[in-house]
Design a protein that fits this description.
This is HD domain-containing protein. Residues 1-17 form the signal peptide. Keywords: Signal. The protein has 332 residues and is mostly helical. The chain has one domain. It has helices spanning 2-20, 31-63, 68-77, 91-97, 107-110, 113-118, 120-129, 132-149, 165-178, 187-190, 199-214, 222-233, 246-260, 276-285, 291-305, 318-324; strands at 82-84, 86-88, 162-164, 243-245. It has a two-stranded antiparallel ribbon. Strands 2-4 form a two-stranded antiparallel ribbon. The longest helix has 33 residues, at 31-63.
Length: 332
C-alpha cells in the first residue's frame, strides 16, 4: 500500500499529460476530425440553449409572487439533474462556449447542510492545520463553484458524459475544502514525507490519505477520490488545450477568482458567471481577512525554497493582482 500511495501522484500527472496531448482545436485536427468537431460544437450550443430555455421557463412559472423560501426552493428545483462531466481545459474557451448568465443566488440556497455534516472530518482537518483566512478561502471557493454551476454551466451536451448534480456537488465540496491543506506551517504538514514537493502535490497526497481513511466506501468511490485528488494537484495549473473534469476546472476558476478578482482573465468574462451581489454575500459570510497578504507571503517563501514548484508558472502580474484586491465584489 505505501508503494501505491507514493506512485499515485505520478500516475495522475502521466494521465493528465496524455489527455492534454489530444487535439482540442481545429488547427491540430485532420479534415474528418475538424468536421466532427464543428458538428459537436453546433450540437453543444443547441443543447445548451434548450437547457437554458427550459430553466428560464421553470423559473418564470414558479417565482412570481413567491416568498424568499419558495424562490430558493424553486431555484434548486430548476437546476439540471446532470452537468457535463468533462469540459475544455482552456478556461476562457469554456466561459465563451457556454451560455452563461450571472444570476443572484442567495447563499442560503447554495448551502447544503447535509454535505457539511457528512464531510465534517475534512472541515475539521482544515481548521486544525490552516489559518482562518485559508479555511474561509476554501469555503468561498466552494460557494463560488456552485454559483458558476447555477449560471448556465454546460449540461446535456450531446456526446459528453454526464455527472449527477449530487455527485458533482460532493466532489466540488471535497476538492474545495481540501485543496490548500498543505499550505500551512502546522507540524503535521512540515513533517509529512511529501513536504519536499509543491504544496499542490502534497495537498493532493494528504487529501488522498485523508479520504481513504475517513470515507472510502458507499459514500465515496475510487472515482470520486481520483477526481478530487487530481483537481487539488492541478488547481494552479492552466492548460491551453485538452479536457478537464468539471470539478477540476471549477476549483481552478474559483481559486484564481478568490485571490485575484474579476480581472483574473479577460475583462467581463467572470461577470457572466459570478453575480456580484451573490459574491458580496458569500464574502460577508466568510470574511477575507488578510488572505491576500498571507498567500503572497507563503507563496513567495515557497518560490525561494522551491524555485521549480508549480506556482512558479503563474504570470508575473498575479501577485500584484492578489495584493490589489480588497473586496471581490468591487474588483475589476
Amino acid at each position: 500500500m505505501p508503494e501505491i500511495v507514493a506512485l499515485y501522484p505520478l500516475l495522475i500527472i502521466l494521465v493528465v499529460a496524455h489527455e492534454n496531448a489530444k487535439p482540442e482545436n481545429a488547427n491540430d485536427m485532420s479534415l474528418s476530425q475538424s468536421i466532427r468537431f464543428a458538428s459537436v460544437q453546433a450540437a453543444s450550443s443547441e443543447a445548451q440553449n434548450s437547457v437554458e430555455e427550459s430553466r428560464a421557463d421553470c423559473l418564470a412559472a414558479n417565482v412570481d409572487n413567491g416568498s424568499q423560501g419558495e424562490i430558493i426552493e424553486t431555484e434548486q428545483q430548476c437546476q439540471p439533474e446532470t452537468f457535463d462531466a468533462f469540459v475544455p481545459s482552456t478556461i476562457t474557451d469554456l466561459l465563451s462556449r457556454a451560455n452563461f448568465k450571472a444570476r443572484y443566488i442567495p447563499l442560503s440556497s447554495l448551502r447544503s447542510i447535509d454535505f457539511e455534516k457528512q464531510f465534517k472530518p475534512s472541515y475539521d482537518l482544515m481548521q486544525t492545520v490552516d489559518s482562518d483566512a485559508v479555511v474561509n478561502h476554501c469555503l468561498r471557493c466552494y460557494y463560488f463553484s456552485l454559483l458558476i454551476l447555477h449560471s448556465g454551466f454546460p449540461s446535456n451536451t450531446p456526446g459528453v458524459r454526464q455527472i449527477t448534480r449530487e455527485e458533482l456537488f460532493k466532489r466540488v465540496f471535497l476538492t474545495s475544502i481540501l485543496h490548500d491543506v498543505a499550505l500551512s506551517h502546522h507540524e503535521s504538514i512540515l513533517n509529512h514525507p511529501a513536504h519536499g514537493m509543491s504544496f499542490e502535490l502534497q495537498s493532493g497526497i494528504m487529501a488522498y490519505e485523508h479520504l481513504l481513511e475517513k470515507y472510502l466506501g458507499p459514500s465515496l468511490s475510487s472515482s470520486d477520490v481520483g477526481d478530487v485528488v487530481q483537481g487539488i494537484m492541478l488547481h494552479t495549473t492552466q492548460f491551453s488545450n485538452g479536457t478537464s473534469s468539471t470539478a477540476n476546472i471549477l476549483i481552478t476558476i474559483s481559486a484564481y477568482f478568490d485571490l485575484s478578482g474579476y480581472g483574473a482573465w479577460n475583462p467581463g468574462v467572470l461577470d457572466n458567471v459570478l453575480h456580484r451581489d451573490s459574491v458580496k454575500e458569500i464574502e460577508a459570510a466568510f470574511p477575507r481577512g488578510n488572505v491576500g497578504g498571507e498567500f503572497v507571503h507563503d507563496l513567495t517563501e515557497m518560490l525561494e525554497e522551491k524555485p521549480n514548484c508549480s506556482i512558479c508558472r503563474v504570470p508575473p502580474s498575479f501577485f500584484e493582482k492578489v495584493k490589489a484586491v480588497k473586496t471581490l465584489a468591487d474588483s475589476h
